[in-house]
Amino acid sequence: MKKNMSIRWNLRKLMAARDLFQTSDLVPLLAERGVHLSREQVYRLVAQPPQRLSMDTLAALCDILAVTPNDLIEVVEVKAQVAKPTASGETASSEPAPPTRRTRVRRPEGL
Question: Which of 44, 26, 46 is CA-nearest to residue 36?
Fold first, then answer.
């Protein structure tokens, strides 16, 4: 069975717990710790899980919020649907099969 893993990014929740509701509030706090990001970069950092995160940024966020990396990033298992084989050996799909239509094949006259 294949395990699919994902992360849960808790930055927005942790910011709210410390009364930081504006993403722009993080810009000067990060700058104090030597991490210089634009307002747009900080917004993306807060709004969605980052694909890449520098260790300096991670350390600064942990210091600002008084948390550990485990508080900020949770690894979670994503439940994947596995198609079960039918009696004929084919895998059943979640979409219904298209309706069947009977057709009649007629030979042209004279053949």
Answer: 26
Residue pair 11/48 in contact (Cβ under 8 Å)? The answer is no
Q: How confident is the model over 32-73, as pLDDT tens digits? A: 999 999 999 999 999 999 999 999 999 999 999 999 999 999
Cα 25 to chain center, whole Å? 25
Tens digits of residue pLDDT in 65-103: 999 999 999 998 888 665 666 666 565 555 677 777 777
Q: How far is CA 63 from CA 30, 55, 56, 69, 93, in A?
A: 9, 12, 11, 10, 48
89 Cα distance to chain centroid: 33
Domains and CATH numbers, the chain: 4-73 (1.10.260)
Task: Report pTM.
Answer: 0.67
